[in-house]
Model the fold of this input.
Amino acid sequence: MSDAPQHDRIAELVPLVALGAATPDEVAAVQAHATSCAVCRAELDSLAVTASRIGMSVPQVAPPPRLKADLMEAIRADSRGTASPVGAPRQTPRRLWPSLAGALAAAVIGLMAWNVTLQRDRNDTTALTPVQVAPNVTVQAQLATVNGRRVAVMNVAGLAALDPAQGYEVWVVPASGVPESRGFMALSAANRFSATVDVSAGETIAVTREARTNTTAPTTDKVLVITT
Amino acid sequence: MARGRKHDPAGLADDDLLELVGSGNEPAFGVLYDRHATVAFSLALRLLGNRAAAEDLVQEAFLSIWRGASAYSPERGSVRTWVLSIVHHRGVDRLRSQAVAVRRDEAMRTEAIVSEEYNDLTSDEAISRVQADVVRHALDQLSPDQSQVLRLAYFGGFTHHEIAQMLELPLGTVKSRLRLALERLRQSLAGVEGAVT
Done:
């Protein structure tokens, strides 16, 4: 911590590393600095725990029972030092790492390779204009192409508040014309909803109000339509 | 400590289970899996968007835990957050290295799936859902701008540079929003430490 400007610069990056939103160079810089700076090390540990808790917020879905059976068989094979069980319905892990440090290293290596590709494949962001929108509803939507992924980012204000049993469901309409559900928009603040959706060229995005059941097709009028 | 209770792993705390797992105790590993598989699978599904990939990711993560249980440090959070951090690191790694337009149909449908499964809640699943509600409430306290960048970073696997480009915002603005969002989340969850560990 003897170099205050260096410390301040690194400290600014700590939250990004905790979230997994830093570049490989930034991750390396923070890790190197944290080995000698107790303040940044403690902050990184603390924020990493907070970031991990974000993962608890997702809707809880139980894995299939056979996953445990496969896994228990895999660890027995691992203990025996033998190959993974033959004929298992799911393939066994391709790469194994002894610790979280190994996992982080793998993430960093993957990130570096990904960033190289990203620099080559990156395209510009373009604004998306709704072709249909309900009264009093305002929409900010953009389409970004990143590493081959076309991601529509939507922020919608002015939608009516709903009871918990309902939500605003996002549909993507491909060339076949049959809408495919992409789940419900997230309520990010009072009467503000947001969603990110992977879309292919020419697909249309529509939003309808639906019950939070396993709806297979839109049942109400569209509150929003965006062509991509 | 786990010593002396090796025949009843179901009654052990997570830390003690990990101690047994580190010595190759399969029943202890099975109990550990039962406690955290749902939250791990849910995150994997949300990140990768399809069940097959999520199952592979969870299997890989738990096998790494089997092999590296000694890497866990209680000072750095609970076993559950440790498991989630492993799933998240590996999930983001896959998102970035696969370089494909990951369809998120199933992940986005999980709310409907949860509704169908509410009838058969185990106690561990119930705890997971309470924790999910607590964290979701904390996330709801973020401003829309903060929430957006946080979700893009954590669930989308995007770096702050990419987020800045996607949203056409200055890099400093994105960094600031991410920092403030995470700090606010930490403060919100600090008051509910017992519910979310």
Q: What stands out?
A: The first helix of chain B runs from residue 14 to 22. Residues 111 and 117 of chain B are 10 Å apart (CA to CA). Chain B touches chain A through 110 residues (CB under 8 Å).
